[in-house]
Design a protein that fits this description.
Length: 156
């Protein structure tokens, strides 16, 4: 619309395109809609479809999004789906992004520890599991299992 006005271009095609573009939903609206659809799929245990929705939502927000809380929620849900699907690289990446914003997020820490262990990144898994033991005593059993398995793998 702005370019058309600046250059005083008169075209019905451009008029239609300008109307269509201005009618599109905002990235936040698209992301919020995809989040809801993704959560519906997760509720039905359709993690692959949920993961697709969360990925689309994150793509809609882009990298420069000011919607920090929405992006974190999407990343947490993406990590959850990836963990259920045993897509350890995606789970690790999503959990790491959450931890960049919130280093004490115990769920993301656990997801990254489990992913690192599955990816045989034992030193990183050990570090995450030890931090988890300090931050969340309720996760003691799973964190101790990860610590034990990683220490054993690093010795072998």
């Amino acid at each position: 619309q702005k370019a058309r006005d600046i250059y005083e271009v008169k075209s019905t095609v451009l008029d239609g395109l300008a109307k269509e573009l201005s009618a599109e939903e905002s990235p936040v609206a698209v992301a919020t809609e995809c989040l809801q659809k993704g959560e519906d799929f997760v509720g039905k245990r359709q993690y692959d479809l949920g993961a697709d929705c969360f990925r689309k939502a994150l793509d809609a927000l882009g990298t420069d999004s000011g919607e920090k809380e929405l992006k974190l929620k999407l990343l947490r849900r993406s990590a959850e789906c990836a963990q259920q699907l045993q897509d350890w690289s995606v789970c690790r990446r999503a959990a790491s992004e959450v931890l960049e914003a919130d280093p004490n997020d115990t769920q993301a820490l656990l997801q990254r520890a489990v992913s690192n262990e599955a990816l045989e990144k034992f030193a990183a898994a050990l570090e995450d599991a030890r931090k988890l033991l300090v931050l969340d005593p309720k996760s003691k059993a799973v964190a101790n299992r990860i610590v034990h398995n990683c220490q054993q793998a690093l010795r072998d």
